[in-house]
Amino acid sequence: MFYIWIAVVAYLLFALNGVVDKFLLTKAVRHPVAYAFYIGITGPLTFVLAPFGLKLVSFSDLFIAIIAGACFVWALYFLYVATQATSISRLLPIEGGFVPFFTLVFAYIVLGERLTSSQFVAFIFLVTGAVLIAFRKDAGHWHPKALGYAVIAAALFALSFVLTKYIFNQTNFVSGLIWTRLGFFAVSLSFLIPSSSRRHIADATKEATPGNKILYYGARLSGGLAGLMQNYAISLGSVIIVNALQGVQYAFLLLLTIFFSEYYPNILKERITKLILAQKILAIVLISLGLYFLTQ
Fold first, then answer.
1. Is the distance from CB of 158 to CB of 243 less than 8 angstroms?
2. What is the distance between the alpha carbons of residues 296 and 290, in angstroms, rounded to a whole number?
3. Model's pTM, two decimal places?
4. Residue 19, CB half-sphere, CA atoms under 13 Å: how many?
5. What secondary structure, in 3-state letters, does 232-281 show?
6. What is the rounded CA–CA span in Å between residue 161 and residue 68?
7. pLDDT digits (tens, 9 = 90+) for 222-235
8. How many domains does the chain have?
9. Which domain holds residue 79?
10. C-alpha–C-alpha distance, residues 156 and 162, integer Å
């Protein structure tokens, strides 16, 4: 069960990234295509790991690896579009519920993965806790397109993780990581085709202040480490369980948002009433129960 704790640390780093991403998408990189481009274009950097075990794979497996990476960058794009169209409090329950659900379905079909009874109980606790900790009733209504983008992002994230697990099953961790990142690069290059996208990408470097650039590259470093740890956890254990552990990320994100909202209230807001506090505590109890059943 060592992979569970690797995933927990990864989600702590992802929570830090979530706070920074919200800040950058509000203040610095204002267009989702630019943000997704600069994340995806770094994919070939994983070739620095080649001396540690890169192996060739079959053409069919290479194709699947590229699709896995491509799905991840497209998922980021749709998630960032949804983030700009609605509040993050509406998005997180969608991602927290639908990513594990789609992962459960895709892993059943593609990998033939089955959960034990205790794992399934843990899965229910973790997903319920994730949705509950992320849920918050806001004024106004869902924008239909934002809801659609959020669901598409969840499906693409799940498909990416399941196909990545498939590649890890066919080769070693280093090879799987490198070949899937070719998909990152391919999608980033496709963003350069429309002239409007090229303009947004070029403008992003002009709009960002030196401080924002430092913040961005720092976030990419921590995000890269988080992604590395998450992928390693997936390679070692159940992709369904690793994705169900997203509730841990939201618990970390809640604490970080409460802390940073004191300094950036216009960007990060977290209103805590007695009812909301009770809801969050219940969610954390459910997530803790999920972790308990996983480690038994």
1. yes
2. 10
3. 0.83
4. 27
5. HHHHHCCHHHHHHCHHHHHHHHHHHHHHHCCCCCCCCCCCCCHHHHHHHH
6. 7
7. 778 888 899 999 99
8. 1
9. 2-294
10. 10
